Amino acid sequence: MFRGSLGDRDLALANYQKAVQLAPDRGQPRYNLAITYLRLKRVDETIAMLKECEQIEPGYASPYFLLGNLFYGQKKYYLAFDQLFQATKLEKSGARFDKAKKLTDFQVVVDEKLDPNSMGNHMSYCLARAGSMSPDEYRKRLPGAETYVEDFAEEQHVLDELATIVGEFPKKKTSGTEFERLIAIKKAGYLAPFILLSSGERFKKDAGEYETKNPGRIEEFRNWATANKVPIEPIHPRCEVRWMGETW
User: Fold this and answer.
1) Which of 14, 71, 98, 155 would bridge with 79, disulfide CB 3.0–4.6 Å?
2) Mean per-residue pLDDT for 81-86?
3) CA dist 179 → 41, 119, 194, 202 (Å)
């Protein structure tokens, strides 16, 4: 924040606004004005000025970095990704490049105690999760998404992709594992009821809606699982995906 009086702030703002008028084809004055708005906590005007700066001088990296960080602070991960990704294309070194690159890159972390023979199965989960989260793939399913949403449809999409990937492995790679259980559930057509039953309270509302649209289907799966000795327990892949400073 400005340390001076209200009059000093108004004068500083007026000077930056005048600088913008005097340099209509330059991005720097607009960037300075955006920072001024931000210090005054006028966030909407900050964002508008940064976007204007990008349009006037698209090769200037600073507005992309600042706007990306603003969106990130608002947890609008896909909007933040767009800005930070563009910023790293314009400025390819330095502290803010390193920070932006770390946020925008997907990182797959696998349990270090994992048996190497089963690692491929667990990695498949991470690939399915990361693939579903990638901006291009995510926006195909949720156009205009501002951030990642982990809901019933998303969980079903990820586990369906995982079952498809793991199902292509040699039989000995999945035999006797929880992934073999997932493959069997998908083949039987019970993936949605399995998720709803194995997820506790997470998708309680979805379970009610699903039962209304598919009366008796959940109980049918429960009976099938009992008859085939298939445990109704969550799938627990021992790996995780890190992206935009979050663990998914």
Assistant:
1) 71
2) 97
3) 50, 12, 13, 21
Residues 6+ apart with CB under 8 A from 90: 59, 60, 61, 64
Phi/psi of residue 246, each to 5°?
-120, 160
| Residue range 124-150, pLDDT digits in tens | 999 999 999 999 999 998 898 999 988
17-25 contacts at long range (C-beta below 8 A, 24 or more positions apart): 24/56, 25/56, 25/57
| CATH 1.25.40.10 intervals, the chain | 6-103
User: How long a stretch of residues is the chain?
Assistant: 248
Give φ, ψ of 59 to 5 degrees.
Answer: -90, 5
What is the model's pTM? Answer: 0.83
217 and 208 in contact (C-beta within 8 Å)? no
- The upper half-sphere exposure of residue 100, i.e. CA atoms within 13 Å in the direction of its Cβ, equals 28
| CATH architecture entry for 6-103 | Alpha Horseshoe (1.25)
Average pLDDT estimate for 21-48: 86
Q: What is the pLDDT of residue 3?
A: 52
- Please report, rounded to a whole number, the percentage of residues in the chain having pLDDT higher than 70: 95
